[in-house]
Design goal:
The structure holds two protein chains of two kinds.
Chain A lengths: L14 H9 L3 H6 L9 H16 L8 H11 L8 E4 L6 H20 L12 E3 L3 H10 L7 E3 L1 H4 L7 H10 L20
Parallel strand pairs in A: 2-3
Chain B lengths: L2 H4 L2 E9 L4 E11 L8 E5 L9 E5 L10 H28 L4 H22 L4 H8 L3 H16 L1
Antiparallel strand pairs in B: 1-2, 2-3, 2-4
Helix pairs in contact in B: 3-5
Classes of the chains: A mainly alpha, B alpha+beta.
């Protein structure tokens, strides 16, 4: 069972977790919510990868995500804004996996904030997988507020089939690339979509 | 208006570490200039609460308790969606080659419904306005149906 920390519950971290994390010298990552990588150069990427590798190999709890918390603050704040994000990469680089993880972390954050289940905010039902524009519009119309929507391969999905002009206008407006598509698209809520 | 102008941020998979089970993403806020040097895109670093985010690590969704087995379900759903898409594309292609596209079918239906009416009204020298009022069709479509109907009758 992997514990997912956020900036609110990290202070009540169990002593065992704290000891394991401290032994791997990653405690600042958990309490600051980010890793200080030093100068922005090639080495910073390697340092980041090493930290991620350490967390996975030692089965440490997942640290707070400043990005997920930022998106949740946008979608659940006073203005309840949508947040749209596209995600690009070469084929086979893991766009879908990364977008799903970002959406899942968003769902964890939102669920923790409102005391609900993460699946209330993101599940396979809120993913558009190679679906035509009509289904995409239907999904965006039906999805619950503050849900994360992932539109996978948005370029293939939307516009792949003909629609009456009135629906085309709607789809153009509503096609919010959640995370990815990603992400990117872009994600995606009746009005807040990651 | 393009999708790239509507998104809050753009991300890309900056480095892949599939053997280790994670990817590193780079995410920038995107701003497209509409004044001065038009259509120039500026990428800003994400800096929520004064924390500058250069990289973000994305693990597999399966490591989260609530989403265990998610990727397997996704693979099945995606295969099904891909098959549906291929199947639909093949059917559309077949229809297009055989000359029975959706547009043709719709035209045939309209012609069957209003062809005789248009012929009769034209013979009575009714105005286009009257025909349009009765059928709801455009000037162009009325002419096209009239020509086709006349040719069909002559043949």
């Amino acid at each position: 069972m992997v514990t997912v920390y956020n900036s609110r519950n990290v202070a009540s971290m169990s002593p065992e977790d704290r000891e394991r994390i401290n032994w791997n010298r990653l405690l600042p990552v958990y309490f600051d919510g980010y890793a200080d990588l030093g100068p922005s150069n090639g080495s910073s990427l390697i340092r980041m990868a090493n930290m991620a590798r350490t967390i996975l190999r030692n089965e440490l709890p997942l640290p707070p995500s400043a990005l997920a918390e930022f998106i949740v603050s946008q979608t659940t704040g006073k203005s309840k804004q949508d947040y749209r994000l596209t995600l690009d990469a070469k084929p086979g680089w893991g766009k879908s996996t990364s977008a799903f993880y970002l959406a899942a972390r968003y769902a964890y954050e939102a669920a923790d904030l409102f005391g609900q289940d993460p699946k209330d905010y993101f599940s396979l039902d809120t993913c558009a997988l190679l679906q035509d524009t009509e289904r995409l519009v239907q999904l965006l119309d039906e999805v619950d507020p503050q849900s994360a929507v992932v539109i996978d391969d948005a370029g293939i999905a939307s516009g792949s089939r003909s629609l009456p002009p009135s629906r085309i206008a709607t789809s153009t407006k509503s096609t919010r690339p959640a995370e990815r598509s990603g992400g990117s698209r872009s994600s995606p809520f009746q009005s807040s979509r990651i | 208006m393009q999708i790239r102008e509507l998104v809050n941020a753009k991300g890309r998979v900056y480095a892949k570490y599939h053997e280790d089970g994670f990817n590193i993403l780079k995410i920038n806020e995107s701003e497209i200039s509409t004044t001065g040097r038009k259509n120039i895109e500026y990428k800003h670093r994400l800096a929520p609460k004064s924390k500058k985010i250069d990289y973000w690590v994305a693990y597999s969704t399966d490591i989260l308790d609530a989403y265990q087995g998610f990727m397997d379900e996704y693979n099945i759903a995606r295969d099904k969606a891909a098959n549906d898409l291929i199947s639909d594309t093949a059917v559309n292609e077949k229809d297009r080659k055989s000359g029975t596209t959706k547009r043709d079918k719709k035209y045939q239906a309209v012609m069957e419904k209003w062809g005789d009416t248009i012929l009769k009204m034209k013979k009575h020298d009714d105005s286009y306005a009257d025909i349009r009022k009765k059928t709801g069709l455009t000037h162009y479509l009325i002419d096209k149906i009239y020509v086709n109907m006349t040719e069909a009758k002559n043949v």
